[in-house]
């Protein structure tokens, strides 16, 4: 007879209006294990976990905690049953201290002082037991995201959680922070805690979990022991068809440079130099990837080249024209007019206006184009026609140009942005984080479109914090660290070597290679 | 000269009190994330309720209670619109201002037939000034005497209540569980919700606290400082209190200083009325009346530090549909 499972769900159903988010979900989670739940965006993972945490109520179905049937009326009840949750968007009060955040909702009495003192002692104990170090008096807003997440975990442990749900915990973390998180989870598991890890990243599932359940379109389609499955199998289960995890592409046939950057320096609004004397070129028919941990100047580089941010010095050669970036007043529209497309890193902040409809978004930034505008009035018919064509070509779903882009999934939003930029036929395309928050099926599509554009003889500059993506797509890889380009590698560069470069370890290899050639 | 200063300071205290009470009222509401532009309306409603009941019962305490009742009722209306039904808080607040302005005048006229005013209060219907022990005897001592006898002594109980509400509010906000949750819900209601605390109930309690303090402020106008309700007697004090709240960066002690400053400007403007300033001539009263707003605009423009409102202020809380 096996042990009683920590959590058991039987026949859970949940609908939001016409959307059946969870269909007859069964799930068994073993005590003291790390159980992964994978699925694409919108597969119903977060809804299911929110039901378990009492944030939503299931329409029907049973929840069993430690073999006992329970009703979870609200989050308070869930906390009382030893269930804790680390949300994707942290549930922290930014201008409170760590200590205040930890006690919020778990204060001992109407007066704060006693509860705060107890929490301070308890935090100290948790810190020692689980190696979760964080200054209790620091303000949340001053902490890096990795530490903020630690505070979320501490919050759950402080409420004596036995089952910890983590919803897409690595979405905001850098690779080293993610690795550290998995170490923490291992420690928690050793202490007998049960962990539910929700993610869409298969690599994390393989690396961190004992067993894994796959969700697709609101249904639980399979549960596997992690050691008996593979990324390929899980990907197929998630998408419902076999998917290519590797990008299928021929070697690049680069021609003349279409974009050359020389001695670019950029200072940010705090007065800190964030891009330091960067020079590189992108040739027609190649994808140049910029790898690096987020926050090492890649974003600023991309923004400067696309005309959003000003440089302190540097030259840009594009389309035979030389632009002095130190004095240039060219804005994003001017850069687009010079045949430079830009898929910004953050589609919500820069790529789309989510309260606008799809067809309006499909020409943002190109709205002055005579094809769409007579100068005074927009040519709505032409814009819609173009939108419909792009929807067909890029398989954007739902295929409705009148819908607000807020109603599209992440993958389809990204396709809208990509279609807009690629279909203007730019000579150079700047692409930032093209697959952030995008499901596997769409990733495959986006990657193949970028390779097609390359094969059509265009130059692409790709910035991504996903090293896998850089390695899959780029023909040349530049590594940025602390605002500098610290190394250049070919398409089949060694992953470990790139990792070291990204961590700022000095590049000696390049010199020794050059030495050998001599 | 010194006597003039004492007199100005004395009237500063009297003029600041309703601002302070209303400002602290707004502080509770806005710290919980409910923007309250209806302070003016609630004060006015309370002033009328207090004036009417105090006249009928000849009891100031019952008047105060009635003022609080009216103000809390209007606050609950605001809460029902903006918390339960997630309406726009500005619109709801403005509606309350209109409602109060119209209803008080209408009911006043219907009930008392004196052009919307309530009749002069009978004995006992008004809060009397309280003389502190030995105030008369100490008056003659230089400097300390007038300070004690004029400035500290000789105010009605609502003045003292207003100034005591400052440390009390600070203590509630920063030393109690309720205060912690109140501040949290104004910054990140989702954090409060996931901690298993009801966002709506917390905000309702904040709105009720706001109503109680506005009740004090309104009652002060009609049955402590004045001797009866007059049409539109708040005359924009609710908006000045709102400006003071921003000026104070939503902190209790700052709120007191901001209200004292605005009260002081008011006192000076009354004092300066009809008086020639050498070399400048008569300064129009409107200049002083505009100063609180001008100062607040300058503050908001970022010239004097930075006023960051509670992050969730003005945004109705809706559970995210993931």
Automatic annotation (TrEMBL), chain A:
Cellular component terms per the entry's GO annotation: plasma membrane
Subcellular location(s) of the protein: Cell membrane
The species this protein was found in: Roseibium marinum
Name of the protein this chain belongs to: Simple sugar transport system ATP-binding protein
PANTHER family recorded: CARBOHYDRATE TRANSPORT ATP-BINDING PROTEIN MG119-RELATED, GUANOSINE IMPORT ATP-BINDING PROTEIN NUPO
Signal peptide coordinates: none
MF-aspect GO terms: ATP binding; ATP hydrolysis activity
Family membership: Belongs to the ABC transporter superfamily.
Domain of life: Bacteria
Membrane topology summary: Peripheral membrane protein
Keywords: ATP-binding, Cell membrane, Membrane, Nucleotide-binding, Repeat, Sugar transport, Translocase, Transport
Keyword set includes Transport: yes
Gene3D superfamilies: P-loop containing nucleotide triphosphate hydrolases
InterPro entries: AAA+_ATPase (IPR003593), ABC_carbohydrate_import_ATPase (IPR050107), ABC_transporter-like_ATP-bd (IPR003439), ABC_transporter-like_CS (IPR017871), P-loop_NTPase (IPR027417)
Keyword RNA-binding: no
Residue ranges constituting the ABC transporter domain according to the UniProt record: 7-242, 259-507
From TrEMBL, chain B:
GO cellular component: plasma membrane
Record-annotated membrane-spanning stretches: 64-83, 90-112, 157-174, 206-223, 229-248, 255-274, 286-305
Compartments, as annotated in UniProt: Cell membrane
Taxonomy, superkingdom: Bacteria
Membrane topology listed for this record: Multi-pass membrane protein
Molecular-function GO terms, alphabetical: transmembrane transporter activity
InterPro entries xref list: ABC_transp_permease
Main location per the UniProt record: membrane
CDD domains tied to this protein: TM_PBP1_transp_TpRbsC_like
UniProt keyword list: Cell membrane, Membrane, Sugar transport, Transmembrane, Transmembrane helix, Transport
Protein's recorded name: Simple sugar transport system permease protein
Species of the source: Roseibium marinum
Source organism phylogeny: Bacteria, Pseudomonadati, Pseudomonadota, Alphaproteobacteria, Hyphomicrobiales
């Amino acid at each position: 007879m096996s042990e009683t499972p920590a959590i058991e769900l039987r026949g859970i159903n949940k609908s939001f209006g016409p959307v059946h988010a969870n269909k007859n979900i069964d799930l068994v989670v073993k005590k003291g294990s790390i159980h992964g739940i994978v699925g694409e965006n919108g597969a119903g993972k977060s809804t299911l976990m929110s039901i378990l945490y009492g944030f939503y109520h299931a329409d029907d179905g049973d929840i069993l905690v430690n073999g006992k049937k329970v009703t979870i009326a609200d989050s308070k009840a869930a906390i009382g049953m030893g269930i804790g949750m680390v949300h994707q968007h942290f549930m922290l009060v930014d201008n409170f201290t760590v200590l205040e955040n930890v006690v919020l909702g778990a204060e001992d009495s109407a007066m704060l002082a006693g509860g705060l003192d107890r929490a301070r002692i308890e935090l100290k104990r948790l810190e020692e037991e689980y190696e979760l170090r964080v200054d209790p008096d620091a303000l949340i807003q001053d902490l890096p995201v990795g530490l903020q997440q630690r505070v979320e975990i501490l919050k759950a442990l402080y409420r004596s959680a036995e089952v910890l749900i983590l919803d897409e915990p690595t979405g905001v973390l850098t690779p080293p922070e993610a690795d550290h998180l998995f170490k923490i989870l291992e420690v928690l598991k050793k202490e007998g805690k049960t962990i539910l890890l929700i993610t869409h990243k298969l690599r994390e599932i393989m690396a961190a979990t004992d067993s894994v359940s796959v969700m697709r379109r609101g249904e639980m389609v399979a549960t596997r022991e992690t050691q008996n499955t593979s990324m390929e199998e899980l990907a197929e289960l998630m998408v419902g068809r076999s998917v290519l995890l590797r990008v299928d592409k021929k070697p690049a046939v680069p021609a003349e440079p279409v974009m050359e950057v020389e001695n670019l320096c950029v200072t940010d609004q705090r007065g800190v130099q964030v891009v330091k004397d960067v020079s590189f070129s992108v040739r027609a028919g190649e994808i140049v990837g910029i790898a690096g941990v987020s926050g090492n100047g890649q974003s600023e580089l991309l923004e400067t080249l696309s005309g959003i941010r000003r440089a302190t010095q540097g030259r840009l050669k594009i389309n035979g024209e030389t632009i002095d970036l130190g004095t240039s007043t060219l804005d994003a529209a001017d850069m687009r007019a010079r045949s430079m497309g830009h898929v910004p890193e953050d589609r919500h902040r820069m790529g789309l206006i989510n309260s606008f409809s799809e067809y309006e978004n499909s020409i943002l930034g190109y709205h002055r184009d005579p094809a769409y505008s007579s100068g005074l009035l927009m040519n709505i018919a032409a814009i819609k026609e173009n939108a419909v064509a792009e929807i067909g070509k890029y398989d954007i779903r739902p295929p409705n140009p009148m819908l607000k882009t807020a109603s599209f999934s992440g993958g389809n939003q990204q396709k809208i942005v990509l279609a807009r930029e690629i279909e203007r036929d730019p000579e150079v395309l700047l692409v930032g984080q093209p697959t952030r928050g995008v499901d596997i099926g769409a990733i495959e599509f986006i990657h193949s479109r970028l390779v097609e554009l390359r094969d059509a003889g265009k130059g692409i500059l790709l910035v991504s914090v996903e090293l896998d993506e850089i390695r899959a797509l780029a023909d040349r890889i530049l590594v940025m660290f602390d605002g500098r380009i610290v190394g250049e590698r070919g398409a089949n560069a060694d992953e470990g070597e790139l990792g070291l470069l990204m961590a700022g370890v000095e590049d000696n290899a390049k010199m020794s290679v050059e030495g050998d050639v001599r | 000269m010194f006597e003039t200063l004492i007199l100005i300071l004395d009237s500063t205290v009297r003029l600041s009190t309703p601002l302070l009470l209303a400002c602290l009222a707004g502080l509770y509401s806005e710290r919980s994330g409910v923007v309250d532009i209806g302070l003016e309306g609630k004060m006015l409603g309370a002033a009328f309720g207090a004036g009417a009941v105090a006249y009928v019962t000849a009891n100031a305490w019952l008047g105060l209670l009635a003022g609080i009742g009216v103000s809390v009722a209007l606050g609950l209306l605001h809460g029902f619109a903006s918390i339960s039904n997630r309406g726009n808080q500005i619109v709801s607040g403005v509606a309350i201002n209109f409602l109060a302005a119209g209803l008080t005048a209408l009911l006043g006229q219907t009930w008392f037939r004196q052009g919307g005013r309530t009749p002069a209060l009978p004995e006992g219907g008004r809060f009397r000034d309280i003389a502190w022990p030995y105030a008369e005897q100490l008056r003659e001592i230089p400097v300390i005497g007038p300070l004690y006898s004029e400035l500290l002594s000789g105010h009605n109980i609502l003045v003292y209540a207003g100034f005591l509400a400052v440390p009390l509010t600070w203590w509630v906000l920063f030393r109690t569980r309720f205060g912690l949750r109140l501040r949290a819900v104004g910054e990140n209601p989702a954090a409060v919700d996931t901690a298993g605390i009801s966002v709506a109930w917390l905000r309702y309690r904040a709105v009720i606290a706001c109503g109680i303090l506005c009740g004090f402020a309104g009652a002060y106008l009609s049955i402590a400082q004045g001797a009866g309700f007059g049409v539109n007697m708040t005359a924009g004090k609710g908006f000045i209190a709102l400006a003071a709240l921003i000026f104070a960066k939503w902190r209790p002690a700052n709120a007191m200083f901001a209200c004292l400053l605005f009260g002081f400007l008011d006192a000076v403007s009354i004092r300066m009325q009809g008086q020639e300033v050498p070399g400048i001539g008569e300064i129009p009263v409107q200049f002083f009346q505009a100063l609180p707003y001008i100062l607040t605009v300058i503050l908001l423009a970022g010239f004097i530090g930075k006023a960051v409102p509670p992050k969730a202020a003005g945004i109705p809380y809706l559970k995210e549909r993931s």
